[in-house]
Specification:
The complex is a heterotrimer of chains A (about 350), B (about 325) and C (about 575). With about 350 residues, chain A is an all-alpha fold. Chain A has 14 helices and no strands. Chain A has helices at about 25-45, 45-60, 65-70, 95-100, 115-155, 155-170, 175-190, 200-225, 230-240, 245-280, 290-300, 305, 310-335, 340. Residues about 1-5 and about 15-25 of chain A have low confidence and may be disordered. Chain B is built from 14 helices and two strands, in the order H-H-H-H-E-E-H-H-H-H-H-H-H-H-H-H. The chains are: A mainly alpha (about 350), B mainly alpha (about 325), C alpha+beta (about 575).
Chain lengths: ~350, ~325, ~575
């Protein structure tokens, strides 16, 4: 099997292929697998630490309104008065008291519009993480169902789904997404999804989700191929269970381990992809904040050359988040696939 | 073997046909109208109609697609009646923006993309495989732990952050490296290989940091796995020197997944590293595609998308072949 | 049918839209005392230089859309075009001022017949193409003929053609037997143009690239851009599309026939795909002492502004005000009440908007898109604060008891941050009036066609640069707020959809009025002023461009029309 490795902003292909040794078990055993996995995660210091960081970041994003209110700011109010932004030497550059962290602005303010950076980082986290999580859900659901269907039914169903997978894996994702996002956004504008800041979020979720399923589907298909001849499936079939029932009750629960591993690895990939697309100007757009949009703002007008701080704020946040999710993903994989973890 | 190649080539052609048709359709649906873009503020309806003729967009969709495909096989004439100009084979259309043959645009972008890909590739393969091997040999040691940790960090560094940081540090602050220039796209140019390296070093590093992390992990995992396999144990038991075992048997078998990865990555990278090219303003395929997409230059975006898909699909086939050649355990079915 | 003057201005708009120039012009104004006047005075870098020789490197972020004079509405092409094609008359640039129309290939700026309907030009003796053949009136006529083929040349400039009595002529390709009767060539050196209506400013139209001579035998149609046959001081030696262009001296150009171009360097080398950010850093660092750029705003990024005052930089900054103005148009069909529009205008913090454009070095806050240097200009008093501060209390008072829209859309071209950020400022300002603003990005290439369509946003920025004769008020006033060709509704490029039965009728009648440019200018100025007082558009910023040049570059001036370094007079120290 060939694996698609992520180039640059990888869409849908996590940095490492999850282990693919299917250890088929009856549904009840699958649940105990999770319990064992959790035991193993609790024993690893790195796993626990990354879990804590992930939880902290999620809280930071969820509590964005509270935290911003505590600092007395919001992410949209601009302040371009000459007391805040230089209007003479470098017009738009925050003046000394506003550039770096202070009691009033915990991370200083943005150049140009003078909005509070802390509030934008927190609200931006909401946007970035929502996009990453939802698009992962979309990919995982599509990938699992289609992959399982291809593997279980075989024959024509398999051939058709497999060709579609090939097609999706062959497309240069980023290029296509670059051209597709404006198309999708213009089509979504008149629907309920097209309201203000929902529009770019909805379109990114759809696009990232839609391009991320093929790789997982391929893995799931492989697993299901070996599963469908197992005794418990045979048994269910002989009791007259319908195909759908077998698929959802017997087959899919048994590939959940692999799916879970893939999902945890897809999240950081999607966080990076959001950042990449928004950085290129096709994702989330000002005034809606996201971490990618903030990177874009730091680069526009070369502000990051005036002061690296503007790059550091979203950059560090992004790296820490992706790192924490990646480490957590490793831990989940190791825990669910004892064979891989023993190395 | 022959049937394998034939079958793969057949599916390659089918896939490309599907990719081209889907791309062509998608771009027709775009929100920007190239004809209206051509005349800007003076776009009275009559003028847009004339622009459509000039761009060949007055034809029915399927005719446009058929003409496009025809151009892949032979030269054809393009343009309004009475003022057609020749588009030489391979004709991928002419740019809406500059009327240049798209094939020429791609031809001049490729050397930049190659320059970026080659250096990055060498850098990350050497560092990735080398460090991965080292970690596998020193399994469990502090060295191993450090390398694995570094790989985790490396794979978590988004290109926009590393790219901008490298530019800021080495070009803007330390002045260690020159501003990138489009004069250099080959180590054999008049400026020499040194200038070539200096020009592309930062994008290479940015890409290599991200990529080598995966290579470290895959190499390490597979080497450890291979070392545990029967034929290695047999080789050891037969009294072969450890070095011979490691390199002759172990690496050969354990490297297979790495070769697979490498093949796919080359395929992807040749289609243009969009972000990296954008950040370092290297006018390769990715950079050109982004600009074409922004300015509504359909034929250019279209051609680059197809070319990139072509590279990925070909890489897939090549990888499968190489897979069989390297690993004695694999036979093509 | 478009009236000529309107078309003239229109084409410049297109040029702006296409090059990102209109959008891309820079702006400043200062809230600090003093400053702004001296700050925006034009600066020519090391003028008075006369030595010939050397090479100038022109850094550009992208290739020219075209070098074909018959297919170009781009200011960049017009600027470089001065080097390889000549026209009957020429718009000669002076930094900070509207250009003046002077004779070029012709012996004078044209002689008009008594009825005002025919203009006659006589070619100078000794003018030749790069291959040594003489330039004849037939070559001029063929050049004009090509620009009628809009189904071949989508960018063909139309302002001259619209003035001509050309019937349904469609260019020389589709029907080679068709004849363009509006241009006559009684002998090898005489060209006569026949007009639909008298047009006092016709010499300016003759300076457009339509009148650049094209030898029929060498017309390669759309491929002509690869090697336009030179009639100017330089010719194309090599053109590597998307990468480089090299211009060398045209041995058959006779300086005695051409007092307008000093043509100092021996060669011009264009590098065509360096990114803007890189160009600005290279120029600021003087890493190539022979370098200049033609990118809009001198390729400068907002944050580069501070460096313009550095000791190593400040003597190398060519600068000047441009003819380009940015305004905020308000859709008068959506925001019908002039008092509501006025309230919106008063609530705007135009100082903050200027900051988004890069601050005081990149433009000045204006009270009118018309320029005091235009012929016949009459000032209109608006209640906007001249320093750009909002007048929030007055705005709120205007809205008391009014029924006004509570949500509005602001559309912006998605190719420049300043446009989007301006929307953010507008959003914030109007919130104080209880109006929610939604920002709608529009693909930049289609921006103006969206503005002219039913998808028109409620508010939108538009740019305006004047025309080939930027000193004429009509070429700004008519396209911005004028009626359509029948006088029954708003005009095609009138994006605020302003139509007032009285004022628009006055403008319509003015189009058919004969008189001197000065007299007409005054009347246009007054009509435009009465329209402006109902706030269909809010004047924002007049562009000022800074362009840093290498330390060996001499005579570098920023053209009022070109918005970049004027290539016809620039030189280099060796």
């Amino acid at each position: 099997m060939t694996q698609i490795q992520s180039v640059e902003p990888s869409i849908g292909s996590p940095p490492l292929p999850p282990a693919t040794s299917p250890e088929a078990k009856a549904p009840a055993e699958a649940r105990s697998l999770l319990a064992t996995a959790w035991m193993r995660i609790r024993r690893s210091k790195i796993a626990l630490l990354s879990l804590c960081v992930v939880v902290a970041i999620l809280l930071f994003a969820i509590l964005a309104p509270v935290l911003s209110a505590m600092s007395g700011n919001d992410p949209y109010t601009s302040n371009t008065s000459p007391e805040v932004l230089d209007d003479f030497q470098t017009p738009g550059l925050p003046l000394p008291g506003y550039m770096y962290p202070s009691a009033q602005h915990w991370l200083g303010v943005e150049p140009g519009l003078g909005r509070d950076l802390f509030a934008r980082l927190a609200y931006g986290g909401q946007v970035s993480l929502t996009i990453a999580l939802l698009s992962t859900v979309v990919s995982v659901v599509l990938g699992t169902v289609l992959g399982a269907a291809a593997g279980y039914f075989g024959g024509k169903t398999d051939a058709i789904i497999s060709r579609i997978m090939d097609l999706f894996l062959a497309f240069p994702h980023l290029l296509l997404v670059l051209s597709l996002t404006p198309i999708l956004q213009s089509r979504l504008r008149d629907t309920p999804l097209g309201e203000g800041s929902f529009l770019p979020m909805a379109s990114l979720v759809i696009i990232l989700g839609f391009f991320g399923w093929a790789y997982l589907a391929r893995i799931v298909r492989g697993q299901v191929l070996s599963l469908r001849e197992r005794e418990f499936v045979e048994a269910a079939r002989s009791f007259g269970a319908s195909h759908l029932s077998i698929l959802f009750r017997q087959i899919i629960p048994n590939v959940m381990g692999v799916v879970l591993v893939y999902a945890t690895m897809l999240i950081p990939t999607n966080i990076s992809a959001e950042a990449a697309l928004s950085f290129l100007g096709v994702g989330v757009k000002d005034p809606t904040p996201s971490w990618g949009q903030m990177l874009n703002a730091a680069q526009s007008g070369n502000w990051y050359l005036s002061d690296p701080w503007f790059l550091a704020v979203p950059g560090v946040m992004l790296i820490v988040t992706v790192l924490a999710f990646n480490l957590l993903g490793d831990a989940v994989r190791d825990a669910l696939d004892p064979k891989a973890s023993r190395h | 073997m022959m049937t394998f190649i034939l079958r793969r080539t057949g599916s390659l052609v089918l896939l490309l046909a599907a990719v081209s048709f889907i791309t062509f359709t998608l771009f027709q649906l775009g929100p920007s109208d190239p004809a209206a873009a051509a005349c800007g503020q003076e776009c009275t309806p009559e003028r847009v109609a004339e622009a459509r003729v000039a761009l060949g967009m007055d034809q029915p969709f399927l005719v446009q697609y058929a003409d496009y495909i025809r151009g892949l096989f032979s030269s054809r004439m393009i343009g309004a009646p009475g003022a057609q100009t020749l588009c030489e084979w391979p004709c991928l259309g002419k740019s809406f923006q500059t009327n240049e043959n798209v094939a020429d645009i791609i031809g001049r972008s490729l050397p930049y993309t190659f320059s970026m890909a080659i250096g990055a590739l060498v850098l990350w393969t050497i560092s990735g495989v080398g460090l991965g091997l080292l970690a596998a040999l020193r399994k469990g040691s502090p060295v191993d732990k450090f390398i694995v940790g570094a790989a985790s960090v490396g794979v978590s560094l988004p290109i926009p952050v590393t790219g901008l940081f490298l530019l800021l540090l080495f070009v803007n602050q330390l002045h260690l490296l020159p501003f990138t220039t489009n004069e250099i796209n080959s180590p054999f140019g008049p400026q020499g290989p040194g200038a070539w390296v200096a020009n592309y070093l930062l994008p290479w590093i940015a890409l290599a940091v991200l990529f080598s992390a995966s290579y470290i992990r895959v190499t390490r995992t597979n080497m450890i796995e291979t070392f545990g396999e029967d034929f290695i144990r047999t080789a050891r038991a037969k009294g072969l020197a450890p070095r011979t075992v490691t390199f002759k048997h172990g690496v050969r078998a354990g490297i297979t997944p790495v070769v697979t990865m490498l093949g796919m990555d080359i395929g992807l990278l040749l289609g243009g590293a969009v972000l990296t090219e954008q950040i370092f303003s290297v006018p390769g395929l990715g950079f050109t595609a982004v600009h074409a997409a922004i300015s509504g230059d359909l034929p250019v975006t279209m051609a680059i998308t197809m070319l990139a898909a072509f590279f990925v699909i070909v890489a897939n086939v090549v990888v499968d072949l190489a897979y069989a050649a390297i690993d004695p355990r694999v036979r093509l079915q | 049918m478009k009236t000529p003057a309107r078309a003239l201005a229109l084409s410049v708009l297109i040029a702006m839209a296409a090059t990102g120039c209109g959008a891309g012009q820079s702006q400043p104004s200062s809230s600090k005392p003093a400053g702004s006047v001296t700050e925006l005075a034009p600066n020519v870098v090391k003028s008075g230089f006369t030595a010939k020789g050397g090479n100038i490197n022109v850094l550009m972020s992208s290739d020219f859309q075209t070098l074909d004079p018959g297919n170009s509405n781009y200011v960049q092409t017009a600027n470089v075009g001065q080097l390889y094609y000549r026209t009957l008359t020429m718009a000669k640039e002076t930094a900070g001022q509207p250009p003046t129309v002077v004779p070029d290939l012709a012996t004078d700026t044209g002689k008009v017949s008594d009825d005002g309907l025919s203009w006659t030009f006589t070619l100078k003796e000794g003018v030749k193409f790069e291959d040594g053949t003489h330039i004849t009136s037939a070559d001029i006529k063929y050049g004009v003929e090509r620009t009628f083929a809009q189904d071949v040349y989508t960018q063909a400039p139309q302002e001259l053609n619209a003035a001509l009595d050309a019937g349904g002529y469609k260019g020389p390709y589709k029907d080679p037997s068709a004849v363009l009767k509006a241009v006559e060539t009684p002998d090898e050196r005489t060209v006569v143009f026949h007009l639909k209506k008298p047009f006092a400013e016709f010499p300016a139209l003759a300076s457009r690239s339509n009148t650049a001579p094209v030898p029929k035998a060498k017309d390669t149609k759309l491929d002509y851009t690869n090697h336009p046959v030179s009639s100017g001081p330089y010719m194309v030696e090599s053109y590597n599309r998307g990468k480089s262009l090299k211009l060398v001296r045209n041995p058959h150009w006779d300086p005695a026939t051409d007092p307008n171009r000093s043509a100092l360097p021996d060669t011009f080398s264009f590098s065509l795909s360096t990114s803007q950010a890189t160009i600005s850093q290279q120029l600021l660092a003087d890493s190539d002492p022979n370098a200049i750029t033609l990118d809009s705003n001198g390729a400068l990024q907002t944050s580069d502004s501070a460096k313009l005052a550095d000791a190593q930089v400040k003597d190398r900054v060519a600068s000047g005000l441009l003819g380009c103005n940015d305004v905020l148009s308000l859709n008068t069909e959506k925001i019908k009440d002039p008092d509501v529009r006025k309230a919106i205008a008063l609530a705007l913090d135009r100082q903050s908007i200027l900051v988004q454009y890069g601050g005081r070095r990149f433009g000045e806050i204006t009270q009118s898109p018309l320029n005091a240097k235009m012929r016949g200009y009459v000032e209109t008093e608006l209640e906007l604060d001249p320093t750009g501060k909002p007048k929030l209390e007055e705005a709120k008072k205007l809205l008391e008891g009014k029924d006004f829209p509570k949500t509005l859309t602001y559309g912006y071209a998605n190719n420049r941050d300043a446009f989007k950020n301006t929307g953010t400022v507008v959003q914030q300002n109007l919130k104080a009036l209880g109006i929610e603003v939604e920002l709608v990005p529009i693909p930049a290439p289609n921006y103006y066609s969206v503005l002219a369509s039913e998808q028109l946003p409620d508010m939108g920025r538009s740019g305006w640069c004047g025309g080939a004769d930027p000193a004429s008020i009509r070429t700004s006033a008519d396209p911005l707020l004028g009626p359509n060709n029948e006088g029954t509704s708003y005009g095609f490029s009138n994006t605020s959809r302003y139509f007032d039965p009285v004022v628009s009728k006055t403008m319509f009648d003015l189009r058919n009025t004969d008189g001197t440019s000065e007299e007409l200018g005054k009347k246009w100025s007054e009509a435009f002023g009465s329209a402006l007082k109902t706030y269909p558009i809010v004047p924002l910023i007049r562009s000022h461009t800074n362009s840093v040049v290498g330390s060996n570059v001499r005579n570098a001036q920023v053209g009022y029309f070109f918005g970049g370094i004027d290539l016809s007079i620039v030189g280099v120290e060796q």
